[in-house]
Amino acid sequence: MTSTPGRGLLHLAAAVDRPEGHDAARCTELARLAERGGLDFVTLGEALARPGWDAPTVLARVAAATRRVGLVPTLPAGRPEPLAVPAVVAALDRVSRGRAGWRTDARAAHAETPLPEGPAAPPDLRRREGGEVALAAAGSGDGRAGSAGTHGWSGGRFHGNADVHGRPDVHGRADDGDPPPPVDLGGLASGANGPSAGAGSAQGSPVRVVDAGEVRARSVAVPHADVVLVRATSPALARAARDRLRSEAADAGRDPDSLRVMAGLLIDLGDGEHAAHPGHGGGGPRQTRRGPLYRGGPVDLADLIASWRQESAVDGFHLTPVEPRRDLERLVNGTVALLQHRGLFRTFYPGSTLREHLGLARPAARPAGSPAEGAA
After folding, report:
1. CB–CB of 185/118 below 8 Å?
2. How is 5-54 classified by DSSP, letter by letter?
3. Angle at 184 between CA 153 and CA 110, to 5 degrees
4. pLDDT band for position 9 (50/70/90)?
5. What is the model's pLDDT at position 166?
6. CA distance 168 to 158
7. Per-residue burial over 64-74, b = 16 or more CB atoms within 10 Å of its CB, e = otherwise
8. Which run of H or E residues covers position 221?
9. What's the confidence (pLDDT) of residue 149?
10. Phi and psi of 42, rounded to 5°?
11. Among residues 140, 161, 142, which one has the least CA distance to residue 199?
12. Neighbours of 101 (CB within 10 A)
């Protein structure tokens, strides 16, 4: 199924990870830079093996210093339990007043996440659907689901609480937490129940961003994702992936226009236009061990983004700077400014929530206890 990309203009996002770990002040600086360029959202990966706070804690602090840019932590599905991560993300959504999302690797959700013990099921099915439970819950819970101190990480990590002013204390805790409604796991993913997608979130529910770099990951991404990240080194490959995802979404009973497909690229803007190597710059990205890599200058990157957009290859790009400060600054001041000048990227945010940035409809509210999406 082919069509022009989703509603509105091009969508752009960037990673703000730093190799040395998460420093809240520097991540805030990068997020504000991304916001100045009008980017839809920024992502921040987990730092469990590195010094500093975890991603939700850092982004809760970033939320207090920004007004529009979306905030998307990268978190594993189902650890320490399938519903803990969605509760933490729901709290971030409340802190940011509807700007939160959750990025997960569908390959891990598909292969690694177990469900709690219960009715007998094949082990492979239980691992796959553990990830689906977490993804479905992230889209069905309202903002109050994140207010439970029992949901979150241990050892000083973010526990999913914030005060009524949207600013967590130094431990990520506050005194206004209520326990989340119970979730029935008896029916595996298709029977997960959760609170209504309603009053607690300014956008209905956090945006679900799924990294579906492999074909087998699509079984998790298609039913539950709002944004799917794909890896491709050419517009033809990206368009083929987008068309497959949209077709499978339609087959699953979803409106294909409710899905945004973004190409993930590493970007190295340190050499400039005249230093591009074969397979970089005007020649496009090349495959590396870490994924497709573009190396060149901001102008050539703008040309690449514009050409892929014109070929209906993707709805946007998720860009990971090789050198965070340098490359993000050149992205915003060079690439984004040029795309704006060409009328291909917005010069202001269309609303206040991440769903509004992405042109995604607010999920319909469900009565408490009704089946989650995808229920039989």
Report:
1. yes
2. PSSSS-EEEEE---TT-B-HHHHHHHHHHHHHTT-SEEEE---TTSSB--
3. 60
4. confident
5. 36
6. 9
7. eebebbbbbbb
8. helix 218-224
9. 38
10. -120, 150
11. 142
12. 30
Q: Residue 219: its pLDDT value, please?
A: 74
Residue 114 pLDDT more than 70?
no
Work out the percent of the chain whose per-residue pLDDT is above 90. 49
Give CA–CA dist 138/98, Å, rounded.
13
Distance between the two ends of the chain, CA-based, in angstroms? 25
Distance (Å) of CA 56 to CA 22, 72, 86: 11, 8, 11
- Sign, CA dihedral 72-74-78-81, equals negative
Does the pLDDT value for residue 371 go beyond 90? no
**pLDDT by residue (tens digit) across 165-224?**
333 332 232 333 333 333 222 222 222 333 333 447 899 999 999 998 766 677 778 888
* Alpha-carbon distances of 33 from 37, 66, 85, 273, 298, rounded to whole Å: 7, 10, 27, 22, 16
Structural tokens at position 131: 């990830």
Residue 135: other Cβ atoms inside 10 A: 32
Pairing relationship of beta strands 260-268 and 316-321 according to DSSP bridges: parallel
Predicted confidence band of residue 1 (pLDDT cuts 50, 70, 90): very low
CA dist 6 and 27 (Å) reads: 29
- Amino acid residing at 187: G
Residue matched to tokens 């709002």: 226
Please give the structure tokens belonging to residue 359: 């042109």
343 burial type by CB count under 10 A (0-12 exposed, 13-18 middle, 19+ buried):
exposed
Question: Where do we find the tokens 């573009």?
Answer: 294
Residue whose structure tokens are 């050198």 = 323
Q: Can you read off the two tokens belonging to residue 144?
A: 């109050």
Take residue 89 and report the two structure tokens written for it. 């993300």
